[in-house]
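To fix ideas, we close by showing one paired sequence and structure record:
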Amino acid sequence: MKILFLAPKVRDGMASFAETDITLLRELAHVVHVLPWHGRPWITLAREALWADLIYCWFVGHHSYLASFFHKPLVVCIGGYDFANLPEYRYGNLTTWLGRRVARRVWKRADAIVAVATSLALEAEYVMGLKLVLYVPTGHDHDFWTPGNGDRPYDVVSVMTADTPARAKLKGLDALYVLAYAM
């Protein structure tokens, strides 16, 4: 199968979870064309979409909105921002009328929605009324990441990216720090 893979571009390419998906799809013998979304490569998107048998998008955004018009099977992988509506923090896809419009179109058109957490899958199904929501974890190995049987102090680990202190606070890093310190 020929898959057009769309995901937001980060500093040096794509996020590791997107790279992992690309590798997995290629290992399953799919031909994957990758289009890192940065700016407005609309002509490239149109050309690649016509070539593809399926379009796979990480997140709901302008890239998945445009992809929804090509009458190709559309798979959208969602994260927390896709369902967030926190206007007091200026955070979430649903905080603006444009974000809501984009999200509605993508959700309505998607043939499958992949959630990276069970809570997102439940929210997508029950709160938003979406169908075809699949839960697929992003590679967490439960056998490897176990605390073991011995006594040990509590450890707190968090992985996130934020380009400003305000963004880190928005993602809850300040609260996590307070919690970890209290332990």
Observations:
- The two ends are 50 Å apart (CA to CA).
- The mean pLDDT is 82.
- Helices lie at 16-27, 42-51, 62-67, 97-109, 118-127, 165-170, 173-182.
- The CA atoms of residues 29 and 166 lie 42 Å apart.
